[in-house]
Design a protein that fits this description.
This protein starts with a helix and ends in a 17-residue tail after the last strand. Helices cover 5% and strands 50% of the residues. The chain has one domain: monomeric porin ompg (Porin, Beta Barrel). The chain is mainly beta. The protein has 2 helices and 17 strands. Strand 5 and strand 6 form a beta hairpin. The chain has a 14-stranded antiparallel β-barrel.
C-alpha cells in the first residue's frame, strides 16, 4: 500500500507540474494575462470550461471564472479570478483564487503600457482520504476502520500563497504581453519538512490585427479583421507554442484555428505537433459565446480531444465605444 501511495504521488505530481492551459486565451485573455483586468474600461464577467481526454479513462476538467472593473480616477482595473482543476481518476483537485490589479499608462498617442500584479491563495487536494490502507483492514472480523496512522493522509491537502505579475503593450489594433506566475515559488510539498517549489510559468503572447476591406465602396471597416495569434508557454521542462489565425466578421462572429506545438523538443519520443485547435465565437447584445475543439495529433491515441466552452458579458458595451482606442482590441 505504501508503494501505491508513492506511485500515486509520482503520477499526480508529473501530470500537475504544468499550469492549466486554455486554447481560448485570446477570447478570454484574463486566463493568460492579468493586465487585461479592466481593459475594456468597464465591468465584465465571464467563465470558461475545459474538458479533456473524455475517451481516455483519465478525464480532466478545468473551470475558470472572472469579474473585473475599471477605476477611471486612477486609470486602473481591479478584478477577481477563480480557477478549479480536477481529475476523475485520482480525484486530485486544485483551486486558486486571485485578486488582480492592473494599471494603464499611456506611452504615446498610439501605445499603452499595462503592468499588473496578482496575489493568489491556492489549495491542492490529493484525495488520499479515498485510499484504503493496510492498518484500516481488520482481518479478524472483516471490518474497515475509518482512520489510519499513516501521516500521508494527514497531509493530503496543501495551501499556499502565490504571487504573479504580467505586462501588456497595446495600441488600437494589436497587443503583446508577458506573464510570469509563481514568482515566490510556493512550497507545495505534502510533508511538513519537505520542500517542493512550484515551478515558474512564463508566457509570451500576442494578437496582431490586420483590417480588411469592406468591399462596399472600397472603404476599410473596423468591424472585419484578421488576427495573427501566438502564445509561447514554458514551465520547467515543458514548453508549448500556439500559433494561428482568427477572422472576425462584422465584429459579431469569428472563426479560426491554432496549431499547438512543442518548440523545444528534447526527446525524440515527443511529438512536434500536439493538436490542431479550431474555434468559433459569437457576440450578441453584450454577450460573447465561444467554443473550441482540440483534435489530438500526438502518439497518445484516441483521447476524445479537448472541448472548451466560454461565455462573457460586457456591462458597458455602448459607453466604451466612445473612447474605443483606449481599450484593448480583442474579439
Amino acid at each position: 500500500m505504501k508503494y501505491l501511495i508513492f506511485m500515486l504521488i509520482f503520477f499526480v505530481g508529473k501530470v500537475n507540474a504544468q499550469d492549466a492551459i486554455f486554447s481560448q486565451y485570446f477570447l478570454v485573455p484574463e486566463t493568460i494575462n492579468t493586465s487585461f483586468t479592466g481593459s475594456i474600461q468597464g465591468t465584465k464577467l465571464g467563465a470558461i470550461h475545459r474538458s479533456q481526454w473524455t475517451n481516455f479513462g483519465f478525464k480532466v476538467n478545468t473551470n475558470f471564472a472572472f469579474i473585473d472593473t475599471w477605476i477611471g480616477k486612477t486609470n486602473s482595473g481591479i478584478g477577481l479570478t477563480i480557477l478549479n482543476h480536477t481529475e476523475n481518476k485520482t480525484k486530485y483537485s486544485f483551486t486558486e483564487i486571485n485578486l488582480n490589479y492592473a494599471l494603464a499608462l499611456q506611452i504615446n498617442n498610439d501605445w499603452y503600457f499595462r503592468p499588473s500584479v496578482s496575489l493568489g491563495y491556492g489549495m491542492k487536494d490529493y484525495a488520499f482520504q479515498n485510499l484504503l490502507l493496510e492498518d484500516q483492514i481488520n482481518i479478524n472480523n472483516g471490518t474497515i476502520n475509518t482512520s489510519s496512522i499513516d501521516p500521508t493522509l494527514l497531509n493530503s491537502k496543501k495551501q499556499f500563497l502565490d504571487f504573479s505579475s504580467s505586462i501588456l503593450f497595446n495600441n488600437e489594433k494589436s497587443w503583446i504581453g508577458l506573464t510570469v506566475r509563481h514568482l515566490n515559488k510556493p512550497n507545495i510539498s505534502m510533508t511538513d519538512e519537505g520542500n517542493t517549489p512550484l515551478d515558474i510559468f512564463v508566457s509570451i503572447h500576442s494578437a496582431i490585427e490586420f483590417k480588411l476591406f469592406k468591399f462596399s465602396r472600397d472603404r476599410y471597416s473596423d468591424k472585419n479583421s484578421l488576427y495573427f495569434l501566438s502564445n509561447f508557454m514554458k514551465q520547467s521542462q515543458y514548453s508549448r507554442l500556439d500559433i494561428g489565425s482568427q477572422y472576425v466578421y462584422d465584429n459579431k462572429f469569428s472563426v479560426g484555428f491554432l496549431v499547438a506545438s512543442n518548440p523545444l523538443k528534447r526527446d525524440s519520443k515527443r511529438d512536434v505537433i500536439n493538436s490542431i485547435n479550431i474555434f468559433a465565437a459569437l457576440k450578441w447584445e453584450g454577450f460573447r459565446y465561444g467554443y473550441s475543439y482540440d483534435a489530438n495529433m500526438s502518439h497518445i491515441g484516441a483521447t476524445g480531444g479537448v472541448h472548451e466552452f466560454s461565455i462573457s458579458y460586457d456591462f458597458t458595451l455602448n459607453s466604451r465605444s466612445i473612447d474605443r482606442y483606449k481599450c484593448i482590441r480583442h474579439f
